[in-house]
Design brief:
- The structure is a single chain.
- By secondary structure, the chain is an alpha/beta fold.
- The protein folds into 2 domains: 134 residues, Response regulator (Rossmann fold), CATH 3.40.50; 69 residues, Arc Repressor Mutant, subunit A, CATH 1.10.10.10.
- Helix 3 packs parallel to helix 4, helix 7 packs across helix 9 and helix 7 crosses helix 10.
- The longest helix has 15 residues.
- The chain has a 5-stranded parallel β-sheet, sandwiched between helices.
- The protein has 10 helices and 5 strands.
Length: 212
């Protein structure tokens, strides 16, 4: 039954941006061969990707982190000012451990390493298109005593949403859960981080991410 539903869905419109022609060629092949996706355009840098955002309508953007003219952070910051924008996945070979946290902070919806198998990227696009956030959450944990190590994946999704300034109602819509469920998770989150409110939770998050 689930396979039938998937087959009946409209293809996910995707635009990819990467400085490497070889990577772009590989992504074109990956998405062209999969009926679940519709590759709308490709871009060689962040500026051309932003031009695609202005000209085209698509669901998910897959961008590099280290791109000429406008890097991944610059793209995410520019999209924060837009009224509507595609959901963004950063796809990078840069192994710096802080990048996933930066992607979350600046509004990205997902992170995928170029070291992962191609099907991992495809599944990440599917999840992000459904409103989910996909990140290597274990990167937030620095030691066994780190309060982030006790957070569930859902709680870390909520924490990232709080850091992006999302309201409870917006988070409920983003994650397709009820407002009461959001409040339940936030109560548990605050307890685990030993904070009293969202402002303190975000401060704790940004401090751990090295962004304050």
């Amino acid at each position: 039954m689930n396979e039938l539903v998937q087959d009946e869905r409209e293809p996910i419109d995707v635009v990819v941006a990467d400085k490497s022609p070889l990577i772009l060629a590989g992504l074109v092949q990956l998405f062209d061969q999969d009926d679940r996706f519709n590759l709308v355009a490709t871009a060689a840098d962040g500026e051309r990707f932003m031009e695609a955002v202005e000209r085209l309508s698509f669901d998910v953007g897959i961008i590099g982190w280290n791109m000429p003219y406008l890097n991944g952070q610059g793209v995410l910051q520019a999209l924060q000012k837009a009224e509507t924008s595609p959901r963004i996945i950063v796809f990078t070979g840069n192994s710096a451990p802080d990048i996933p946290r930066q992607v979350m902070r600046f509004g990205g919806a997902g992170f995928c390493s170029k070291a992962d198998a191609p099907n991992v990227l495809a599944e990440t696009v599917l999840a992000v298109s459904e409103g989910r956030m996909v990140f290597p959450f274990m990167d937030l944990s620095r030691s066994g005593s780190d309060p982030f190590s006790g957070l569930t994946a859902r709680e870390q999704e909520l924490l990232a949403s709080l850091a992006r300034g999302r309201t409870n109602q917006q988070i409920a819509g983003d994650l397709t859960i009820s407002l009461n469920t959001v409040k339940f998770h936030l109560k548990n989150l605050y307890g685990k981080l030993d904070v009293k409110n969202r402002a303190q939770a975000v401060a704790c998050y940004l401090n751990a991410s090295g962004n304050v």
